[in-house]
Amino acid sequence: MARKVLIVEDEANIAELVNLYLKKEGYETMVAGDGGKALELYRSFRPDLVLLDIMLPVMDGWAVCSKIRETDKTPIIMLTAKGETIDKVAGLEMGADDYIVKPFEMKELLARVHAVLRRLGDEEERTRRLTFDGLVINLDSYELEVRGKRVDTPPKELELLFHLASSPNRVFTRNQLLDEVWGFDYFGDSRTVDVHIKRLREKLEGVSDQWSLKTVWGVGYKFELHTNA
Ligand code: CA
Predict the structure, then answer these.
(1) Arithmetic mean of pLDDT, 50-69
(2) What is the distance in A from the centroid of ligand 1 to the CA of 93?
(3) How remote is the CA of residue 48 from the centroid of ligand 1, in Å?
(4) Cα 88 to averaged position of ligand 1 atoms, centre (Å)
């Protein structure tokens, strides 16, 4: 699946150029032109990486960075203007993963993006663990934690939940879920998925108003993140 990059930059020509290059490299992208929009898109788009300009309308890059760091470890590369050397250090201290000085070569930016995402990929492989409000899905220890308490969950249920929650808001058909969670060799029917979803719901109903396991009628299921929560 394509990695998602959120580009936060108020200079339209730079944003457009970066957007173009990242798209060409196969990344899925969104652009925010101010700090408020950045946080809004951050929550709905769930990027794997944020490219974050510092001087922005509404809310500056520092504020956006620390807001994201309140809850998430999502990699952030700061885009700093020439001469903002003190800010580089500050940015790394505030939880930015890297910085790049404007004006930059696209080649350099892409190299940084690749490097940060490669590190992220290694980390994800090491810790197959997803965290949401009141919910931890750990595929290393095969444990489900709901509001801080361990809840006994059969492996397939946990794998199904992990699969859905790895791509929030994406709708999966029952057949996709059978293929991707149970495997192509599985001869069960799509009712199997329904039964597992039902059992998961019994464990997760009402736990948080920030996410839910949704039925998309006539299509399938999704792990929905509520952007207004
Ligand atoms: Ca700017």
Answers:
(1) 93
(2) 20
(3) 22
(4) 15
Whole-angstrom CA distances from 190 to 25, 28, 56 are 36, 30, 49
pLDDT in tens, 82-117: 666 556 566 667 788 888 888 899 999 999 999 998
What spacing in Å lies between the alpha carbon of 10 and ligand 1's midpoint? 5
Q: How far is CA 24 from CA 17, 32, 43, in A?
A: 11, 19, 24
- The helix/strand/coil state of 56 is coil
The per-residue pLDDT for range 171-225, each reduced to its tens digit, is 999 988 988 898 766 677 778 999 999 999 999 999 999 999 999 998 999 999 9
Question: What is the model's pLDDT at position 22?
Answer: 96
Report the phi/psi class of residue 169: left, alpha or beta, with left for phi > 0 and alpha for psi in -120 to 50. left
- The rounded Å distance from CA 114 to ligand 1 centre is 23
Ligand 1 center to residue 11 CA distance, Å? 6
Q: For residue 53, report the distance from its CA to the centre of ligand 1, in Å.
A: 6
